[in-house]
Amino acid sequence: MAKQIINAKIVTPEGILEGKTLIYDRKIIEISDSPLPDAETINAGGRLLIPGLIDIHVHGYLGADASDGTEDAVRTIASGILKNGVTAFLPTTMTVSYEELEKAFSAIRGVMRSPHPGEAIVLGAHAEGPFINVNKKGAQSAEFVRRPDADFVIRNKDVIKLITIAPETDEDFSEIKKIRSQTDAVISMGHTDADYDTAIRAFKAGVSHATHLFNAMTGITHRAPGAAGAALFTENVSCELICDTFHVHPALFSPVFRLKRDKFNLITDCMRAGGMPDGEYDLGGQKVTVNGIKCRLDDGTIAGSVLTLNKAVANLSGAGIPLHEAVCAASLYPARAIGADNERGALLPGLRADFALCDGEINISEVYIAGERAL
Ligand SMILES: [Zn+2]
Fold it and tell me: Structurally, how many domains does the chain consist of?
């Protein structure tokens, strides 16, 4: 039987609708001018109704990490980030050994195949490395960095949805082309020392996404626009941005959004300390000290964040981006980047009934997955 939500400000890709009713079962049926007479009804009491958020770059939460290699760890993340309005995500592995990666992928695969109620849905894995450039390793461990190896991706192609590669370490792009032709994985440029020209050639070879734009890549100057410039100025390339105001200065949020629009993806890059008190944590075998929004290795290197995706939406909206567009940057646009927008990412008829109720600061009060209350 159809259900409905009344008295909500419905956030759609076109704008925020008031005085309408969202009618749904497992999927969204329609946004109607008037409520049905006999459907199960939720009164939103004037709250915002947003699509479930989608995090395509999140390592951990509540003490658990995707690289721990257990289903329990993945489920701890999945239930933890649900409270932030996230209904689907890519658990993101670090640069660790092949053995640890295979173990992590099999845990991710297990959770993907049997989702539990009260958990955000696992769409696959984001493998952030090990095919990165040691010179731009950031908080990744140098010990396990390898040259790109398409066969490894092909062996795990049922689970890898997104893979971060430093394209300059694949000189003739033969591995990138092989991954592109033999898997559905989206190839992202990241932890890279590529200059502008190399990055542009990598896009032609099949790279279509950029991992945390500006962080761990060559930056922009007027004579050398770098990997960051190549990603920003190439229309079809989608870009992740960590909008925590620490990894990236907030003055850049609005101009980057205006350049990338529907290719702009909010991510958290959250590590296991997310949702936990300040202190010392492990990130891919290295010690990270967390102090407020700042996470650093002992040598001062900026490590992953403790950002939540609902806070990222609030930060982007606070930088002057209309709220409905800031919401798209954490739902429809990342869904599109990984080819999942035919199923999810917006409050549009035919898509899954994954959504959340929240206030104007995107503080989440209720979450629904496939039309069922999950929080
Ligand atoms: Zn990361």
Answer: 2
